[in-house]
Amino acid sequence: MKYRILGRTQLNVSEIGFGSWGISGNSYGATSDSESLKALSFALDQGVNFIDTADIYGFGKSEELVGTALKGKRGQVVLATKGGWDFTQGAVRSNYDPSYIKEAIHSSLKRLNTDYIDVYQLHNPPDSLLENFEALLSQLLLAQKEGKIRFIGVSIFVPWQGEAWVNTGVMDTVQCIYNLVDQRVGENFLSFAEEKKIGVIAREPLECGMLTGKYTKEVEFPKNDHRRRWSKEKIELILKKVEVLKTRYEKLKTEPIPFSLGFVLRQKPVSVVIPGAKTSEQVAMNLLASENNPVSIEIFKELQELYETNDIFKQGFFEKKK
């Protein structure tokens, strides 16, 4: 396993982390808790030392599984979680009230079976929070002073949000979407983050599994899979993009997963990439990208150029205006 520095935190993290949304059981289909724990244990044994989760994943279940896996191993791991989605009062809602975040941090610590969180991230916060951030910031800084959290981060949807949050001056990390079919943060934000010494956590590196090569347009996702809400048109458009990329990894005689993750890892400002995994076999496949990255610098540049010049890659994005 290779390691990188997580921005100004100076934390040394495995370049491939463990994304824990999939093991929650209510977002990527059915899971087995025993298999999830085996996957986490295998990842740790292979040198993975960065785990990303969130309280909303499985309404606490993902954090509980991570906490179980980390018994006796907490000191080996850089642990990141997220908060801001309130599932404690019925319907899920965005909630960044300082009193709620205080309680959310306390609950996450309990589920994670730890007395500190290395990186506590705001989970896709509304843009309006940028204009009224002082009260929440005070609560986060208090939690930091008390030793409950070490560093503060944010998870975002679109690139301009990353720059806006970095400009608050308090964000140590930014978690953002970056993959072969969505390279928008690579246009300006990643270089901006590197200049500001911000740790970049690349999420959805496999485009929610669509870059694994296992899906066709006839796919029907189960009820406990968030992709079930995707339109048929969205699925077909993503698969058209994947088909364009398929000729590239087939030419290299490599698998689509290490090819996709290898592309993300070639981006120097990325500190850690967090593909999900529900089994040890999936972890092993993810790790191939670090063991022997099939994407050379030359191929990386070709894939960037392909994205920039092929109009299909400009279609279908979720946009939020400034």
Provide a descriptive summary of the structure in words.
- With 322 residues, the chain is α/β, with parallel strands linked by helices.
- It has a single domain, classed as NADP-dependent oxidoreductase domain (TIM Barrel, Alpha-Beta Barrel), CATH 3.20.20.
- The protein has ten helices and twelve strands.
- The strands form three sheets. The chain has an eight-stranded parallel sheet, with helices on one face. A two-stranded antiparallel ribbon has the order 1-2. It has a two-stranded antiparallel ribbon with strand order 6-7.
- β8, α4 and β9 form a beta-alpha-beta unit.
- α8 packs across α9.
Please summarize what this structure is.
With 322 residues, the protein is of the alpha/beta class.
Please provide the ordered H/E string of secondary-structure elements: EEEHEHEEEHEHEHEHEHHEHH
Q: At CATH's second level, what is the architecture?
A: Alpha-Beta Barrel
Q: Tell me the overall shape.
A: globular
Number of helices: 10
- Under CATH, the homologous superfamily reads NADP-dependent oxidoreductase domain
Strand content: 15-25%
Derived from helix and strand composition plus strand pairing, the structural class reads alpha/beta
What percentage of residues falls in helices of 4 or more residues? 25-40%
Q: Round the mean pLDDT to the nearest integer and report it.
A: 96
Strand order of the largest sheet: 3-4-5-8-9-10-11-12
Terminal CA distance: 39 Å
**Domains, number:** 1
